[in-house]
Amino acid sequence: MTQDKETINTSWNFDNSYARLPEAFFSRQEVNPVRSPELVKLNETLAASLGLNPKQLKEESGTAVFAGNEVPSGALPLAQAYAGHQFGHFTMLGDGRALLLGEQVTPDGKRYDIQLKGSGRTPYSRGGDGRAALGPMLREYIISEAMHALRIPTTRSLAVVSTGETVSRETSLPGAVLTRVAASHLRVGTFQYAAGTGDEKNLRALADYTIKRHYPEVEADKNPYLSLLREVMKRQAELVAKWQLAGFIHGVMNTDNMAISGETIDYGPCAFMDTYNPETVFSSIDVQGRYAYENQPLIAGWNLARFAEALLPLIHKDQEQAVKTAQEELSGFSNLYEGHWLAGMRAKLGLLTEEPEDKALAEELLSLMEKHRADYTNTFRALTFDQYDDTILFGTKEFTEWHERWEARRGRQEETKEASRELMRSSNPAVIPRNHRVEEALDAAGKGDFTVMDRLLEALSDPFAHSPEQAEYAALPEPSLRPYRTFCGT
Ligand code: AMP
Ligand code: MG
């Protein structure tokens, strides 16, 4: 049969560059088929952008790939090895429930990891079953796609299949496999693993591979490994600033969950904050608040120090000199972060110019929000449209005074009020994936009704549209006696 042009241009086109790293970095792995896979969600837009044909992916053969029942031509399934600091403690890890099929090379030459999550046991599974439940995989789908639409670098979700099998957690739950798409799955923990093998050849191979794949512009630098550290720091500074500006709490910023590409990765216990409170923690196991909202920039810096440690032998052959050089570099992180955060805050406040007092102006608003328990997203939404409801904050004298100062500050820029408002519209989302709406969508999906999730995804797909249909998603949850809790290892 001759293939028509459309078919040729819209199919899996795998390369397997990661598999060409030294063997220590992975374990080749047979796929672990599941009983009766069914496609429950396909990201058609993403599929098309990867050069795949959504119509074909919806056929049985497409589902078989997403379930791990069939290996598509050109794929070379493997589980990646890595280590990581989990809540500060160093551990050997690796893909315990994931398989990298390979790298899809798109028609425009971009390369993306295609990974099955929940695909069964691997040599790194330890005591785990290697599987995932439907609810958490759909949750990752919703939140990662929302992040993408909020213009926050992130891994994406291509498909979710239910497996027809159950997984045993606190109760018995329907099983699922998520297909994750990532710039790569190289983590700070991958470098820690490489350094831990004690063989500098491994570390160098990984660093060279990473530079080629993500930072080719530093390849010819005098010290490309120091440049690698710097570039990763830059991307993390920008990423974590975006999290803070959106009110996103990752929840488990272990070093194995920090991607070298600068994408948000590993949607376990993450959630968006409603009421502004810097101490917010959602994760049930984060009892010390290590990964609380306010700690995220600090933790990013801590993780980058672990990255630098792993790189030391490459940075300089004299260890003392290597430490000194790395420390100098790392000391720049907080300024990098602050710069991105302040630029983002200026945009959220409609400030097109820079004044020295801008940071204080933003911080005063935040402290008023904290004091009066205001909703983070809705406060900026109200400022954007200059429409203030009966929220306690807006009725206070302190807010009125702040508002006058803000208006005066905006008046000192030459740009029109419309330009300022336009900047605010495109910087302050109308809708975020609020926890109660995500739960509502997952409850319905669990009962076989996907319409609630589809509507939510539609609203989240263009968060800066401020359309009438999005208005309902600004509504806050009913006050609850129990705080919202999220879970790891689901
Ligand atoms: P995470 O909390 O998702 O970052 O996972 C931490 C480590 O636990 C990784 O090595 C995962 O592959 C592994 N893991 C999580 N869930 C399972 C599971 N159900 N079976 C086997 N390994 C798992
Ligand atoms: Mg992880």
How large is the radius of gyration?
A: 23 Å
- Please describe the biggest sheet, giving its number of strands, its sense, and whether it closes into a barrel: 7 strands, antiparallel
Shape: globular
Contiguous runs where pLDDT drops below 50 for at least 5 residues: 1-9
Count of all domains: 3
Percentage of residues assigned to helices: 40-55%
In DSSP terms (H or I, runs of 4 or more residues), the helix count works out at 17
The oligomeric state is single chain
The total beta strand count reads 13
How much of the sequence is in beta strands? 5-15%
Bound molecules: adenosine monophosphate, magnesium ion
Average pLDDT for all residues: 96
Q: Distance N terminus to C terminus?
A: 44 Å
Order of helices and strands: HEEEHHHEEEEEEHEEHHHEEHHHHHHHHH
The secondary-structure class comes to: alpha+beta
Observed structural traits:
490 residues, alpha+beta, two-stranded antiparallel ribbon, binds magnesium ion, binds adenosine monophosphate, 13 strands, globular, 3 domains
What report would you give on this structure?
This protein has 490 residues and is of the alpha+beta class. Mean pLDDT is 96; it is low at 1-9. It contains 17 helices and 13 strands. Strand 5 and strand 6 form a beta hairpin. The protein folds into 3 domains: 5-182, no CATH class; 188-340, no CATH class; 351-425, no CATH class. The radius of gyration is 23 Å and the shape is globular. Adenosine monophosphate binds at residues 93-97, 124-125, 128-131, 252, 256-257, 266, 268, 488-489.
